[in-house]
Amino acid sequence: MMEGSEDFINPIDKDKVAENPGLLPYAHTVGSAVIRPEDKGKIKGKSLLAMRQQTDTQLLQLQRQMQTLIEQAQEIQQRIQVSEMIYDADMGFEPLIGQTYYLFEKEDGGHVLTMISPAEWGKKLPYKAFVAKAFLMADHTWKIEKD
Predict the structure, then answer these.
(1) What CA–CA distance (Å, rounded) separates 102 from 90?
(2) pLDDT of 86-138, one tens digit each?
(3) Each residue of 45-63: pLDDT tens digit?
């Protein structure tokens, strides 16, 4: 201490003064920030909700992708079935790449490939039923066209 000064005597009781007030788990003065205990259940609940929303979104996206793949696989299976019918069908010509042909079912259950569309036959088809409109691609596979 300095010369001529008296020793300072703190009028506050030592039991009521904290040595390290910043380490207390509660506010130590009226102007201190309010310290509230964390509601761990609430925090977990919010986190779980956010996680479920995110994973539900991802699962829905995967479901849509799978549905697209299923539809593509079904289209390929239909192409295979119609292509096999075409190659087993009666045809009096050699199909040319890049041309559209028409597959009909005959009365005996067999098939015939023609260059004549169902509309060009007139009112009565000479065959039991129209099966498919098909386009011969360069790799000799058939693309089934929608009318």
Answers:
(1) 12
(2) 889 999 899 999 999 999 999 998 999 999 999 898 888 899 989 999 999 99
(3) 888 888 999 999 999 999 9
pTM of the model: 0.55
Q: Which residues contact 74 (CB under 8 A, 6 or more apart)?
A: none
> What are 134's two structure tokens?
């098909």
CB 26 within 8 A of CB 35: yes
The three state secondary structure string of 39-78 is: CHHHHHHHHHHHHHHHHHHHHHHHHHHHHHHHHHHHHHHH
The answer to whether the beta carbons of residues 25 and 35 sit under 8 Å apart is: yes
